[in-house]
Amino acid sequence: MADGREPLGVVAVADALRPTAAAAVAALRTAGIRRLVMLTGDGRTAADRVAQAVGVAEVRARLLPEEKLAAVRALQQEGEVVAVVGDGVNDAPALAAATVGIAMGVAGTHAALETADVALMGDDLTLLAPTIVRARRTLAIIRQNMALALGLKAVFLLLALLGQATLWMAVAADMGASLLVIANGLRALPAAGRPA
Asked: Is 25 in the same domain as 86?
C-alpha cells in the first residue's frame, strides 16, 4: 500500500495452518513413520514456517507437479516406501507414482481422488496415522490367514501322500481352516467404542 509518494504498509496473505496438523505429524511419528518430507509449491518462507510449526524437518519448496513427481521417484530410488498425501491437481502425478497415494476426500480435487490408492473421506489429518495402523494390522492378518490355510493344506497333502488321511479328515480340516481364517479375519473389525 502506498500513497503515491512512499510505501505505507504491506499486506501479507497466507494459508491458515490446519489446527490438527502438528498432532497429525506427531501421531505419524508414533505410528512408526520415520521420515516425513514436505513437498510443496509454496515459497520457501511459507513452507519453512509451516514445517517448523508442525515438526517436519525436511522441506522441498517451490515445486511444480513434475518436480514433486521427481522427488517421489528419487525417494523410491533411495529405497524408501513412499506414501504421498495430497488434495490438488498438482499432487496427482506424485500420488500416482507413490507406493501409496492418499487423497484428502472432502477437499480433494477429482484428479487427486481418482489417482490415489486411498481416499480419506474427511479433511482431518489425524485420520492418517490410524489408517496406517489399521492397514498394517489388516496386512498382518491376511498374512496369518494365508500361512494358516496353506499350512493346513500342506499338512493334509503330506498325510494323504503317506496314506494317513481320510476323506472325512480332509473335509473337516478344510472346513476348520475356513472357520479359523474367518474368525482371525474378524479381528480386523473395529472394537466397540474405537473409531473405524
From this structure: yes
Q: How many domains does the chain have?
A: 2
C-alpha closest to that of 56 among 73, 75, 33, 77 = 33
Q: DSSP letters along the chain, please?
A: -B-SSSB-------PPPPTTHHHHHHHHHHTT----EEE-SS-HHHHHHHHHHHT--EEE-S--HHHHHHHHHHHHHTT---EEEE-SGGGHHHHHHSSEEEEETTT--HHHHHH-SEEESSS-GGGHHHHHHHHHHHHHHHHHHHHHHHHHHHHHHHHHHTT---HHHHHHHHHHHHHHHHHHHGGGSPPTTS--
pLDDT band at 120 (very low <50, low <70, confident <90, very high): confident
Predicted pLDDT of residue 106: 61
Q: Identify whether residues 63 and 106 lie together within a single domain.
A: yes
Do 75 and 153 lie in a common domain? no
Q: Are residues 68 and 83 in the same domain?
A: yes
Taking only the tens place, the pLDDT of each residue in 30-49 is 999 999 999 999 999 999 99
Please give the residue range of the domain that contains residue 141: 131-188
